[in-house]
Amino acid sequence: xxxxxxxxxxxxxxxxxxxxxxxxxxxxxxxxxxxxxxxxxxxxxxxxxxxxxxxxxxxxxxxxxxxxxxxxxxxxxxxxxxxxxxxxxxxxxxxxxxxxxxxxxxxxxxxxxxxxxxxxxxxxxxxxxxxxxxxxxxxxxxxxxxxxxxxxxxxxxxxxxxxxxxxxxxxxxxxxxxxxxxxxxxxxxxxxxxxxxxxxxxxxxxxxxxxxxxxxxxxxxxxxxxxxxxxxxxxxxxxxxxxxxxxxxxxxxxxxxxxxxxxxxxxxxxxxxxxxxxxxxxxxxxxxxxxxxxxxxxxxxxxxxxxxxxxxxxxxxxxxxxxxxxxxxxxxxxxxxxxxxxxxxxxxxxxxxxxxxxxxxxxxxxxxxxxxxxxxxxxxxxxxxxxxxxxxxxxxxxxxxxxxxxxxxxxxxxxxxxxxxxxxxxxxxxxxxxxxxxxxxxxxxxxxxxxxxxxxxxxxxxxxxxxxxxxxxxxxxxxxxxxxxxxxxxxxxxxxxxxxxxx
Length: 503
Hints:
Layout: H1 11-28, H2 45-49, H3 52-91, E1 105-107, E2 128-134, E3 140-144, E4 153-159, E5 164-169, H4 170-173, E6 178-183, E7 197-200, E8 205-212, H5 220-227, E9 231-234, H6 235-239, H7 257-260, H8 265-273, H9 283-290, H10 307-332, H11 346-349, H12 353-363, E10 372-377, E11 392-397, E12 405-415, E13 430-432, E14 447-452, E15 464-466, E16 472-481, H13 483-486, E17 495-498
Parallel strand pairs: 6-7, 14-15
Antiparallel strand pairs: 1-2, 2-8, 3-6, 3-9, 4-5, 4-8, 10-16, 11-14, 11-17, 12-13, 12-16
Helix pairs in contact: 1-10, 3-8, 3-10, 3-12
């Protein structure tokens, strides 16, 4: 995915940057009442030199604290951002986004709408099923039915770090009814009889995100029947053996976005780290973070910190977001880095925490490159941020240049501020390949999509993707993408501004 270029910094990033500047300024201004110069005694040269070493040492400590806070925020942001989804979907039973408790599948027999707010940049092509897994006591066994080859489906398995550690999909099942097992980091054992494959998570809590393709509104009952056949059960229930002792209950802290985006972020991070045992490659990193109070299960009391320490940690958060802004401007907007680089296994990302941070910030729980390709439109063909209050746009696929796919593609529009789907009079949030029979072709066989706030006219309305009166972005998704997409020999068309007709 991508974000607007340098000239289009978000208010959030700009606010953080301003906060960092204010903090730096505050640290440099001395407070208190100044005595007249005539009243000040003549300093002894020897005694005046003595505080220099402690002052320099403290300045070094503050600088290191700020740098460590920056790195910890970049590393830990995906974990805390994922907690928002976990809390809303599996813990807060009275919330609007609750689906099912842990170790239960919650099916949603509809596609995402603007009312769905627990995941930013959601796809609206595939009804979701949600499975939050607590793997502390024993593994879970997931069963999926046989699914027709024409229908896309997948179960994306994600750990607390947001690494996609495995997939259950057509490649894994060969289209047949199949049984798989997901085990936590502490489980030791062999693959049970009747289980096709065991997937191991690095964390004790994990996520299973099911996607089942919906062809059209009339196809919804077929999707419901498939969703009803997705099953999960503890390993002991699958084997018919006595269950092990249950894991201790967890007291989940309520998710507060204001707290999560400030110093309270580190309180959430410490809580979650108790379910994420240290992996060998991160032992030194976790030890470094512990030096500033970031430790699994430990309280993080920001109010108890000295003011200079609080300012340094706050500045570190601002530094992390500034690094992201620079990364977006120089790497994503220039298409040197794509979404395919930001999602995947730990091995695939090679511990590139900035990439993982960007992925979680721009659209958490993105698919790995082998499963789906995402291409973004945050700026138009002239490099300006997409804005429905300023321009109308077209996206034109030339004849025989639709996205090559082995499953399906879609073009989905999102509000630039909320990163959610946009409410509109057509209740249309995307245009996808399943809609091709209803779309109007150009005279030469090409396909033009109209992306704008007002209707382009009745004769073009079938191809209209409504935009808000403000900033927006578009994501071109391709599930099971063709080779020409993967090797980038196929190039996406530009988002082209067009002259707006007078009212």
